[in-house]
Amino acid sequence: MMTAGHAAWMLSCEARSLLHRLGRLQPFALQETMVPAASFTTPAQTAVERYLIRGRRDLRRQILRYLAWLDSEAGRRASPEDAHRALVFLRLRFNSVLSQFDIFSEAQSQRSGHETGIWLAGLDELARDALELPGLFDAPPVICYLARGPGAAIRRAHTRLPGGGDNPVAIIRVPRERMIGSALASSLVHEVGHQGAALLGLVDSLREAVRTRGRRGEDADAWRMWSRWLSEIVADLWSVARVGVCATTGMMGVLSLPAAFVFRDNADDPHPTPWIRVLLSAALGDALYPHAQWGGLVQLWESFYPAGKIPLHRRSLFASLRRTIPALVETLVEHRPVAMRGRTIAEVMATDERQPERLRATFDDWHCVPSPMLAARPSLVFAVIGQARSDDRITPEQEGSALAGMLRHWALRNTLDNAASCAGWIATRKRGPSAAAAIDAVN
């Protein structure tokens, strides 16, 4: 028969084993095998390391308290069942720490891949730029990684991680099949839109506006569907506002599926029905950037999937959805929430510079003198090249080469900027206040 002392010894050994294995989880900074340009951005790496170190430190304290308790008078009086129950909860917490570590480790390990790691670092910069709205919120760091399958996804910052705790960064899964073309921005910036919408509370404020609009007339079923799909619709709006026509052409690529899926109406799916979703994206583009190209895309989409192929029992709903698209678009683009200080999405994102003619003129300028493209915002670069690709002014091969080069440029630029900032900070610390004032004067 096992004695209480033997049970305590076994539990103590298991707790010490947990403690030893916990100590073997090293910071990512001690495991990096990638070139510096492929690393996470400094804010992202700092946020992740601090979060994981804090979790390991807290668990270590809990294990040490458990071991001290086992050796105390109270622990010796406790039944084996009670002592074992406490260890079980520690092991569950240990597994949660491992799960959180693995979430970031998967993204980290891809940075070691040849070229892929640098491209991902460049995508971090694209995501950061697409999310940034100075004066409205402090954008969290963003980390991108690749996954198979056609769809992208985001684990938003400040959402709960497995085992508890708020995610310190936004983690975006990018479909590998989109690497590399301007359509990549469609998927990536859509996911960025989910994060931006959450920071601004856009979905909640718009849902009330959509419901109010739906109560004014007919098509109640259509408006209920729009309300259900609103989170994805707002992310689509963000994507169109940031990168223009390639948001819609990229969506057409992702949603080019067998007709049964394109016309499917799944009540449990938060995404709009694919056929309607493309039409809505084009309508949003036409509202923000009026141009005949959007009508051309609608005609192209309908040539791929003629409306006559809509199943008979869904035609009434589809007709209602299509009929309400103009009113929905008006509601979205004219919305002026408090979080955006009474401005519309077009105003806060300065969509004037993304108008098709402006993008075409910029492409012409860069074609003659490429150097200004290196200093341009990443989202603008994708918008310009995406417009050129849609206009058939650049081949798919030229598009892929240009964007791969820009991703490398952004990754390297961020690395060198960080190195220069660190060097300046160290020099300032060494030289004292007078040297710091001199550096500020030079800059």
Essential attributes:
3% strand, 20 helices, 443 residues, disordered C terminus, mainly alpha, 3-stranded mixed sheet, globular
How would you briefly describe this protein structure?
The protein has 20 helices and three strands. It is mainly alpha-helical.
Written overview of the protein:
A three-stranded mixed beta sheet has the order 1-3-2, sandwiched between helices. 67% of the residues lie in helices and 3% in strands. The chain is mainly alpha-helical. The chain contains 20 helices and three strands.
- Radius of gyration based on Cα positions: 26 Å
Number-wise, the strands total 3
Largest pleated sheet: 3 strands, mixed
Q: Give the overall shape.
A: globular
Topology:
Layout: H1 4-23, H2 42-70, H3 73-77, H4 80-109, H5 116-131, E1 142-147, E2 153-155, E3 170-175, H6 183-200, H7 202-214, H8 220-228, H9 230-243, H10 245-254, H11 259-262, H12 274-288, H13 293-304, H14 315-333, H15 345-348, H16 356-368, H17 371-375, H18 378-390, H19 396-431, H20 433-442
Parallel strand pairs: 1-3
Antiparallel strand pairs: 2-3
Helix pairs in contact: 1-2, 1-4, 2-4, 5-6, 5-19, 6-9, 6-10, 7-8, 7-14, 8-14, 9-10, 9-12, 10-12, 10-13, 10-18, 12-13, 12-14, 16-18, 18-19, 19-20
